[in-house]
Amino acid sequence: MIGPLGWGIFLGFFVIFIFLGFYGARWRRGDLNQLHEWALAGRRLGTFLAWFLVGADLYTAYTFVAVPSGVFASGALYFYAVPYVATVFALAAVTMPALWRWSRLRNYVTAADFVQERFNSKLLAGFVAATGIVAEFPYIALQIVGMQAVLTVMLLGVVKNVKLVSDIALTISFIILAAFVYTSGLRGATLTAVFKDALIFLGVIAILVAVPFAIHGGFSAAFNAATLKALPTGVSTLKDPYFITYTTLWIGSSLALYLYPHSVNGALSAESDKKLAMSTALLPIYGIALALLAMYGILIYGSPEAMKILSLFPASARGSLVIPTLAVTTLPEWLAALALLGVFVGGLVPAAIMAMAQANLLIRNVVKPIYPRITPQGETRAAKWSSVIFKFLALGFVFIVPATYAIWLQLLGGIIITQTLPAVFLGLVTNKFDKYSLMTGWAVGLGLGIYLFITPHKPSAMSPLYPIAGHLVFIAIIALAVNLLIVLVGTGIAMAVKRGMS
Amino acid sequence: MTTEASKNIHTWRKVVAGILFIIPWIYYTLLPLYNTVQPELGGVPYFYWSQTLWLLISSILFVIGVILLYPSKR
To answer: Keywords assigned by UniProt (chain B) (predicted)?
Structure first.
């Protein structure tokens, strides 16, 4: 377990992380009273930095906690995250440079800015912005759950009341985070992102190298041990009934990711459309770390020592502790401390960017249309303060909602955000869609998605999956299909009516 | 400006890039093809390592696609 040496290294490197966060304000200096300077780092990131920033932004506690946790508890189904990251960047390499070109030309900061002009509707833009703000909350909450997992493993055996101490530590970390995001904006997030990635890669590779020494029999022993546990969706391969579930989960997640405001924020900070496209094309390589982390959800079954630690916790809490536990049981203490810090700041950095993206949407697409006389400086100040408030709202959310639900809620976030696809992605291709049909499609898709999510059915009361003809289907796909149908039919009717009148 | 620049890109470049971007989407939907245990690699079933390998293949395809779409621009 982690002793004084490990704690010293963890805290020492955390101080470096904080320094980088504040130093960001001085790095590539710009007027931080301008929203695009604060929120988009002045749109000056090259291929390399954009790769790190977007990578750090998209590979989050979802990667380190939710996916390994899912593989650990359910088996092969959760490997859907791999096709998801392989395909999402093809979509992004086509859509994001196009959005980037529009944004540079017209000074857009959010996707809702684009929707507003494209379809000439502040109301539709407001809906897109509100969807982004809401969908982001559970995603930030998930980051905090990841950070809690690290603290839980580190505090085990050190203090009596682990929950209380970890809550205090989290609150302090969030105060520091809010302070440096306020002063440095996306610049701070970018510098800390490179630092974070270095730690993550170090941890992932170190565990891979340590496997033959630390786990007797390596991966084959682990797969055999996991097979004995009969994970519900299969261990070595995916069980037949889950084929459609697997496919709809990765397609739905893939369609959703670049609709999230934090992804758009990262993409718009690139220096040119070509550099953005190139860094996006290289991101699946970053996903290899995700694939390994997912497999570590199986690997842990091969380590009796790690399983013993997990058995100290209730079954529902074990999944999120997989990676931190594997780090402390397979790695030397100093290396384990660095890996744990990687997972910890791996939650902080994305949480920072997500709260910034929420703040941009609130100020640009909700507040500004209501108070059009706001000055650019006032706009930036309001965005800075809103990003602080959003962070603490998410923190409060985690203290109230149990961790198990936070991961379900992240998939609910996916169901919600996917309903903005017709306005944003299809808007890049055409402006022919009727804005009222887009609004109706959005509202019905959203309502249907939430209704199916909360409707009780097997196998669990609240689930992102809904059974259709005996197959569990990701609700985001069902709701999006209905949404698209309404947009197409509605636009057809609107065109026919216009033609009839003229 | 940029919208005109994108018009100058030959259609064949767009078509080939489009195909390259779509290949991983098609591959991953053919789940029964890779949902097998054998051949194993270092104790890891084919289901896991082949999908991981396709991350690398996807990246190579996408990079070629991007080079096709942005031939001369900085």
So the answer is: Membrane, Transmembrane, Transmembrane helix
State the Cα–Cα distance between residues B1 and B24, nearest whole angstrom.
32
CB hemisphere CA count around A374 (13 angstroms): 20
Rounded CA-CA distance A138/A471 in Å is 26
Instruction: Decide if B55 and A86 are in contact by the 8 Å CB cutoff.
Output: yes
Which DSSP helix (H) or strand (E) runs through A350? helix A333-361
A86 interfacial to chain B (CB closer than 8 Å)? yes
Model pLDDT for residues A306-355, shown as the tens digit of each residue: 888 888 888 777 888 888 888 888 888 888 888 889 888 888 888 888 88
DSSP letters for B2-65: HHHHHHTS-HHHHHHHHHHHHHHHHHHH-HHHH---PSPBTTB-HHHHHHHHHHHHHHHHHHHH
Instruction: Tell me the pLDDT tens digit for each residue of A267-298.
Output: 888 888 888 899 899 999 888 888 988 998 88
Number of CB atoms found within 10 A of residue A114's CB: 23
Integer Cα distance of A419 and A431 in angstroms: 17
Chain A residues with beta carbon closer than 8 angstroms to that of B71:
none
- pTM (predicted TM-score): 0.88
Q: For residue A465, what is the enclosing H or E element? A: strand A465-468
Return d(Cα B1, Cα B4) in angstroms, integer: 5
ipTM of the complex: 0.89
**Per-residue DSSP letters for A102-165?**
HHHHHT--SHHHHHHHHTT-HHHHHHHHHHHHHHHHHHHHHHHHHHHHHHHHHHTTT-S-HHHH
Task: Give the residue among A502, A487, A365 at the shortest CA–CA distance from A433.
Answer: A487
At A373 the three-state DSSP class reads: coil
Q: What does A285-303 look like in DSSP terms, one character per residue?
A: HHHHHHHHHHHHHHHGGG-
Which residues of A fall within a CB distance of 8 Å from B70? 273-274, 277-278
What does the alpha-carbon distance between residue B20 and residue A205 come to, in Å, rounded to a whole number?
30
- For residue range A178-224, list pLDDT tens digits in order: 888 888 887 888 888 888 888 888 888 888 888 777 787 788 888 88
Pairing verdict, β A471-474 and A465-468: antiparallel
Residue A9 phi, psi (nearest 5)? -65, -45
How far is A218 from chain B, CA to nearest CA, in Å?
7
Tell me: the pLDDT tens digits for A344-372? 888 888 888 888 889 989 988 888 888 88
Please give, rounded to a whole number of angstroms, the shortest distance from the CA of B47 to a CA of chain A. Answer: 6
Location of structure tokens 């941009």: A360
CA atoms within 13 Å, Cβ hemisphere of B14: 7
Tell me whether B19 touches chain A (CB under 8 Å).
no
Three-state helix/strand/coil letters over A228-277? HCCCCCCCCCCCHHHHHHHHHHHHHHHHHHCCCHHHHHHHHCECCHHHHH
